[in-house]
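Issue 218. Parser rejects a valid record. Input:
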Amino acid sequence: MATDNVYIPFFLSAFICIQLIEPNICDGALTSGCIPAERSALLEFKRGLKDPTNRLSSWVGEDCCKWKGVTCSNHTGHVVKLDLHNPHPFSDFGDEPHNNWILGGELRPSLLGLKHLKYLDLSTNDFGGINIPEFMGSFHQLQYLNLSRAGLGGLLPHQLGNLSNLQYLDLSNDLVPNSFSVVKFNEFSIGDALWISHLSSLKHLNLNSVNFQNGAHWLEALNMLPSIVEIYLSDCAIQSVPLSLPHVNFTSLSVLDLSDNLIDSTIPSWLSNISGLEYLDISWNSLQGNIPPAFGNLASLKNLNLANNFHLQGGIPTSFKNLCKLQNLILPGININQDLLELDEIFSGCIKMSLVILDLSYTNISGQLPEWLFQLRKLKSLQLSQNLISGPIPVSLGQLASSLQELSLEQNQLNETIPESMGWLSQLVSLELELNFLEGVMSEAHFANLTKLKHLYLWSNSLTLKVKTDWLPPFQLESLRIGSCKLGPEFPTWLQSQINISEIDMPNAGIIDAMPNWFWGLISTAEYVIISGNQISGHVPNILHLNNLSWLDLSSNYFEGPLPYFPPRLELLDLSNNSFSGTISLAIIMNMPNLLYFSLSENNLSGEIPFSVCQLRALEALDLSKNMLSGELPNCWNNSSRIDVMDFSSNNISGVIPESICSISTLRSLHLSNNSLSGELPLSLKDCKELLLLDAGHNGLKGEIPTWIGESLTHLEFLKLRSNMLAGDIPPNLSRLSALQMLDLANNELSGNIPRSFGNFTAMKVIGRFPSLIAYAIEDSYKEQMLVTTKGNTLYYDKLLSLINIFDLSDNNLSGGVPEELTNLSSLFSLNLSGNHFTGEITKNISKLQQLESLDLSRNNFSGTIPSNLVALTSLAFLNLSYNNLSGEIPRGNQLLTFNDPSIYTGNPGLCGFPLNQSCKDSETTQGQKNADDREENEMIWFYTSMAPGFVVGFWAVWGTLILNKNWNLYYFRFIDNMLDKVYVLTVLKVSRIRKRCCSQQG
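Output the parser choked on:
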């Protein structure tokens, strides 16, 4: 018996081993390689795929468990994981590594042979927009499914609701580039989302960019998931969210992202009942009303993002400062003074002790920054930019010394000085205070402990940075934006210590100094350098070694000398308004193939324009205006150019307008004025079909104005051909230019009449807006401007150019009457017809031009009187009617009373009255008679006007009293009866006497 007991452990161990090994034998796990049926399923699935770079080259041989992307169970040998996601997630459209590894083709149902699959990832590929196959809902063991950005589309199959073991589901579908670097929009949509409620094990759900149709019941479905922890529903076109829920079942929910939707209600109250919520993002919606005070009770909330909800109002809820609940007992022996952070374990239960990130930027909140805001002791990021917050920055800001890393308060209405407690924020990395009304002096104390500061943005305030010349900042900045703050007059020497800087933006900083040599070494790591609008002098050396530099703006300074060589990565180079001299070297231009914006305007450059400018394929704006350039314009352009703006104005350029210039299909603004160009407007200009502005004024152009301008340049908004030698009639079809805001054909040799169709310029009937002429990357650099002659002056207009409507045909040989139709141009800013041979009277309908500020009809043959309703032009600031045949009295009233210069009426012998010295004939008598007539007329008007109310008052004063007072009523009618009796008796007696007298006479 004892011997038998000895073998019992042995037999028991053998039995257990057999039980463990037997299933593996049955499933074939002990055979070489993977399970054959699953290997066959994988090979059939591969045959349906497109694999241009042979990513699946390892899928050969018997052992599929060793194939790339395939993982088998160590116990059963079954394929449990298939991971075919693109190993190179794209960062930019057209990212080459990403595109080279894209899988495509079809998703064959052979994949169902993997019955034990738990993990499937096909993300960041491109399957050409096909739908998710319904068989995806048959992987009953699946726990992880990721089909995000896989180039799939269509309606999400409800069969996915059968995946009851699924814990992770990612069907997000943002923009996906295909192998040709073209963005494809393969949109997912979801109908009735109740199938989501069947995913009882789900913890992570990402449906970003899935289009939720109306009535999708998504919230009801999500509220039924007992284990859900993270929900991402950004950019889903969700239009509404229920404001209340009968029961909030999100007991495990930690992350909720509803950003970038169309929600236009108040913030739902049920959100404040999700006690475990740590991350809440409802940014980029249209939320209204106030931030709910109940948010202050979200004891676990770390990240609250309500940014870009422009219709929110009020301020930060005061509940955020509420005292927290006592959660743990304070035991004897705890030293509270040892470490204040230990209090986090004692006091909790409110947002005050949990919030790490608060983003309320672009929400329209107002009020002042409360002192208690800086008692949120774990706050690392406070973003309140682009709001209506006013008042000072509280001194209590310093209480966040050990936590705050990002402070963004830009574009508010903050004023007063910056407190020195700002210098206590030892963890601060980014400080953004630009575009406020802050003032005063900042000293070393404001930066004393900012050892981690990397981004300092103070521009567009009235601050003065006053530090010692030997000050050594405690920080190493990466970006500095301090424009419009006073740094000068000396060049700030403390910058020399910032050896890692990549962005320097300090325009209009009051620097009046020579550029130090060390500056060019300092910016060796910089990408953006803007020091425009100062008075910095000196030479610019060759800076070819600045390999990181892509943006260099030295405009509006006193730099001089020849143009240096610049680094090849430059995209923007602005040297305008300096004193550079010499020629534009071919080599200088060829060394900058990536230029988008190139301006050498307002310098002393001479010589010819090199043909190499035609080879700048990326160039979008070229400005060489206001120099002394000579020779002819390059005739080397082709359709590979991307130029939007060309400005060659105010030089000494001669020759003809190049035929090739309109090979540039993107050209929208062409400035050629103030040169010595000759010849006719070339027929090739008709190919500039996107042209918005054509300024060829002040040249020597000849010939007639082509009719094709009105037929081909249909987008034209500004047409300026003044001061040339153009002749012939004005083409009537120019009126087809419905967008035209300026027509300036002055000082030519044009003849004939003004076409009646010119009353049809649509843009001159409404105040328009000049569209952006250049791409987003440079729209803040190039400012469209043009010389405009109006109000008797010639000035450069830039910002106001979009608001003016000008019609100028002055100094030509035009004749006939002025068409009545011109008065339809009700938004004209300036009308100048002077220096022609126009006849007839000035139309009375001129009063319709209510926006008119400048009117010049001088040096013509207008006759008759000045219409009296000219006084209705209340915006008129300039008037000239001199040298015509006008007669009669000058109207008086409104703006005309301010024109006291008699020269504006001189040359009209028949005119009289103010401001001329010539009084009108019989003016005093006529005026006296007129005054008497006016008084008589006024008296009659007052007489007839007062009759009606007098009658009403008198009538009701009598009859109203009699009706309301019975005693008076009785007395009144008794008095009437007595009077009638007396009258009757007197009448009878009188008649009787008359009869007697008559009878006695007859007898």
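Fixed in the parser; the record now loads. The mean pLDDT is 84.
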